[in-house]
Amino acid sequence: MKDSQKGLDIFLALIVEEGTLIPRVVEEVQKKVSEEVQRSLGTSVARVNIKIKGIKFSSK
Amino acid sequence: MRFYQKIIVGVGFVALAAFSLGGVLVAVGVFSRFVVVAALSALEQDPVTRLVSLAVFLFLLGMSIYFPFSFRRKAQKATVGLKNPLGQVEISQKAISEFIQRIGKELEGVEDLEAGIKSSEEGVDVYLTLSAQAKGEIPRLIDELQTVVKNYLTSTIGIENVREIKVKVAKIL
């Protein structure tokens, strides 16, 4: 996490499940994290940066 | 790898080969070990030789420390950026490659598949190495594979600028 003039920059690393629509999940995570941080801490969030580290496959 | 890195690696490998060859020749008895000792002792003879040899050995030492870390950094950084208004989004190339391998192998006629990714400002290039079953029609299979991979990359991963999907048929089984 980094504090800038515009607010907090948050950095997340995710592993998503196979079949997940990554753009949709990423947007949901960004919105959720941003809202929760603003609500809980009262600090504005500038950016929620995400790195997808891997895709978890279901064992068949 | 950049040009200067190729030069440094080349010099390093030549030095390594020379040391190894010296070791092998001494081990098999072609040279006496005293030849090596004499060669190393010669480095101490005058200050200029000493200084030059010190620079060469320091360079080799520095290279042996720097390169493993630089490759590790590069491997960690290998990502593809996705467009997103709420922040920076990156996805690891390794994850995408594994994903492509997985979906590609589900196609009938694909025996094995290896995938590589190259990402630049112009777009994303995908390199596939395919082992195909002989009973299938290879051109149709390649076409199908390219379509499936492109669709998945665009819809599931969210990469909009897939530029090329190159397929190399390595084996027909």
Structural overview:
The complex is a heterodimer of chains A (60) and B (173). Chain A is an alpha+beta fold. Chain A has 1 helix and 3 strands, in the order ββαβ. A 3-stranded mixed β-sheet of chain A has the order 1-2-3, covered by helices on one side. In chain A, helix 1 links the parallel strand 2 and strand 3 (45-56). Chain B is of the alpha+beta class. Chain B has 2 domains: 3-77, no CATH class; 89-172, Cation efflux protein, cytoplasmic domain (Alpha-Beta Plaits, 2-Layer Sandwich), CATH 3.30.70. In chain B, the strands form 2 sheets. In chain B, strands 3-4-5 form a 3-stranded mixed β-sheet. Chain B has a two-stranded antiparallel sheet with strand order 1-2. In chain B, helix 4 (93-105) crosses helix 5. The longest helix of chain B has 31 residues, at 47-77. The two termini of chain B are 34 Å apart. The model of chain B has no long low-confidence stretch (mean pLDDT 85). At the A-B interface, helix 1 and strand 3 of A face strand 2, helix 4 and helix 5 of B. Strand 3 (45-56) of chain A pairs parallel with strand 2 of chain B, so a sheet runs across the interface.
